[in-house]
Design goal:
This protein has 622 residues and is an alpha+beta fold. The chain has 3 domains: 90 residues, no CATH class; 207 residues, no CATH class; 277 residues, L-fuculose-1-phosphate Aldolase (3-Layer(aba) Sandwich). The chain contains 21 helices and 28 strands. The strands form 7 sheets. Strands 12-22-21-20-15-23-27-26-25 form a 9-stranded mixed β-sheet, with helices on both faces. It has a 7-stranded mixed β-sheet with strand order 4-3-7-8-9-10-11, with helices on both faces. Helix 1 crosses helix 3, helix 4 packs across helix 19 and helix 8 packs across helix 9. The longest helix is centred in the first third of the chain and has 21 residues.
Length: 622
């Protein structure tokens, strides 16, 4: 085999190869690299390195030409902490919905016998046609699944049962099903399965954690709504059901909708629930948006809302992505400002407490599934507060074109976009107005609320994390934090916070000169709320969920766009995330607080999607 065939063969088996400063790096699942394969790789190492280098340059050239600004791939590497040139864990961001669609493989589970909901049946047929028209590959249920048998054992009572089922193959992006309501016999089976699971977990596992696939195996024989999957982190479950009028009622406070939405997702064992009637469509995921679309707007719904949610599932950042350290939160002026920011916003009601998993989800098997998917989080909150520190530079903030030419290239980046000097400081070539500028990429730091904390009553010594971006991701915990006992998890929205901070440093430095407060909540301002030098963008973006490169990239591009519109004279910027909420950043703490309070008092800011429609009708707001 030649180099390209070796790389392709190994990639198909889950092996990752990349070049790092002229060295070949390999990350492989256990058992794949046989002695024969290792020998073959060693024999072709020079050719493989050359192939990887050429392929990487081709990717960069496809993203960037001399007449364009920095590529999506470069933005993704910068905000994702992938500046070492490694491809391990890196996925180039895609922000075009049609491009996302081309990468999806979806299957439809056959309808249950006797299913009679005409509105859902008709929508399901139309949905399949629309997905195909955008390039989504539709696999039949038989092609997308395979026979699977496993043995269920209960050692204490010496009980065994062989379960025969069909499991969804790992390559399937999503399975679309309808909600199935258990009969009286079905409810009895569910009750029995839950009691067996509780006993097995307590007496056999001694409360040690099981994977979500194992939990599903244990209870799926009794639950028609469970669709076992080979890779539950890759295959999302989408359920079609009747709309929940209470959840979509604009008169019900958002805080009361949180347990309704979570209960719906858990009841249906799904990541996405689509409510369907003869007149409208609603969509629900863990972002808990209450967005609704007229049934005739199915094209916009599929392209702008559904496809992005399937392409980028909601997954929190793992602690393993960070280099973990400590900081003295009592000595940080920005941590103190963050605590003040949260308290000042308490009266607005924009940052509801969210929920504790144990309080909302009653069944242990369900709690354990959510715990596994949320990477050990004991609760989920909606919204964040953060405070960007002024960017940190070493040496010249900006250099000339002649100095740029003397810099070295860096693995993983196009030399047209990014280079570094002799002490490792990176400079980026970017367009500011009509001029090309060569600006240093600073180290950026911010303090933010931990996931699940009470944002309006933060404890300085336990709730405020410090996040850094110095080529890689850094996480600093308050001094004395014991990770073995503390519920310390980074926010889902870390990429968004870092993207806003880095883009501000590069394109609107006055915004971060003295630090900048940032706020996110699951609602929107009306178009009438904005004043002079206050800007809004992002309303037409695909509705990617939080916690993704794509969400970060959209916010990076949003800051850049607003900086161009305003000549960097930004009193406040609002970056809209459809079906999720709005991000706000300003150069002054009390300014952003006063403006948000005024919006609440005047009815121009609300949680939920009430004002999103009006924003979409007015693309430019200033």
């Amino acid at each position: 085999m030649n180099a390209s065939e070796i790389v392709e063969n190994l990639t198909q088996q889950g092996v990752q190869l990349w070049a790092d400063n002229g060295k070949l790096k390999i990350n492989s699942p256990k058992g794949i690299l046989t002695p024969e394969l290792r020998t073959e790789i060693a024999q072709h190492k020079p050719e493989i390195l050359a192939f990887l280098s050429e392929a990487n340059q081709t990717i960069n050239d496809n993203y960037t030409t001399h007449g364009e600004d920095i590529s999506l791939q470069t933005i993704g590497r910068l905000i994702g902490g992938f500046c070492d040139g490694s491809n391990l864990g890196f996925k180039a961001p895609v922000i075009d919905s049609k491009a996302m669609a081309q990468k999806l493989v979806i299957t439809f589970r056959p309808l249950p016998k006797g299913y009679t909901n005409d509105a859902i049946i008709k929508f399901r047929e139309n949905l399949e046609l629309k997905l195909q028209s955008y390039g989504v590959k539709i696999e039949s249920w038989e092609q997308a699944t395979k026979e699977f048998s496993y043995e269920l054992k209960l050692p204490l009572i010496n009980w065994k049962k062989t379960i025969n089922t069909r499991v969804i193959k790992a390559g399937i992006s999503a399975v679309i099903d309808v909600e199935r309501h258990p009969s009286l016999t079905g409810k009895l089976k569910i009750f029995t399965a839950e009691r067996l699971y509780q006993g097995y977990s307590h007496f056999v596992l001694k409360n040690q954690k099981m994977s979500v696939s194992k939990i599903a195996q244990f209870i799926s024989w009794a639950e028609e709504n469970i669709r076992p999957a080979e890779d539950p982190t890759n295959t999302q479950v989408i359920v079609l059901t009747e709309p929940d009028d209470k959840f979509s009622d604009p008169t019900i406070p958002y805080e009361q909708k949180i347990p309704i939405g979570i209960s719906t997702l858990v009841r249906t064992f799904s990541e996405i629930v689509i409510g369907v009637s003869h007149s409208q469509i609603s969509i629900l995921n863990m972002n808990l948006s209450d967005s609704k679309f007229p049934i005739n707007d199915i094209d916009e719904f599929v392209l702008k809302s559904l496809i992005p949610k399937i392409y980028v599932p909601i997954l929190p950042l793992s602690m393993s992505r960070f280099e973990v350290g400590e900081y003295d939160s009592n000595q940080s002026e920005y941590a103190a400002k963050l605590v003040k920011l949260g308290k000042e916003l308490a009266s607005t009601g924009l940052l509801p407490a969210g929920f504790k998993i144990d309080n909302v989800i009653k069944r242990k098997s369900h709690r354990d599934i959510v715990d596994w998917m949320a990477k050990g989080r004991t609760g989920v909150s909606y919204g964040f507060v953060a405070y960007a520190e002024p960017p940190q530079y070493v040496g010249a903030v900006e250099i000339s074109a002649k100095e740029w030419e003397s810099l070295s290239s860096l693995d993983g980046f196009s030399s047209n976009e990014l280079r570094q000097n002799e002490i490792g400081r990176k400079y980026i070539r970017t367009q500011i107005g009509q001029e090309w500028k060569f600006k240093q990429i600073p180290d950026v730091w911010l303090v933010c609320s931990r996931s699940g904390s009470n944002k309006t009553n933060l404890n300085l010594e336990t709730d405020v994390l410090r996040i850094g971006l110095k080529g890689n991701l850094l996480l600093q915990l308050p001094q004395g934090t014991d990770l073995a006992v503390a519920d310390i998890k980074p926010s889902y929205d870390i990429y968004v916070m870092l993207a806003m901070t880095l883009a501000g440093a590069l394109y609107a430095p006055a915004l971060l000169e003295n630090g900048a407060p940032m706020v996110h909540f699951h609602g929107y301002p009306s178009k009438e709320w904005f004043r002079e030098n206050e800007y809004c963008t992002g309303v037409q973006n695909p509705s990617v969920p939080c916690g993704t490169y794509e969400a970060g990239v959209f916010n990076f591009l949003g800051i850049r766009t607003l900086a161009e519109q305003s000549n960097s004279n930004i009193a406040l910027a609002s970056l809209i995330e459809p079906d999720h909420g709005a991000n706000f950043i300003a150069p002054d703490l009390m300014y952003i607080v006063d403006r948000l309070k005024a919006g609440i008092e005047q009815g121009q800011i609300e949680l939920g999607g009430k004002h999103l429609v009006s924003l979409k009708e007015n693309l430019a707001v200033n």
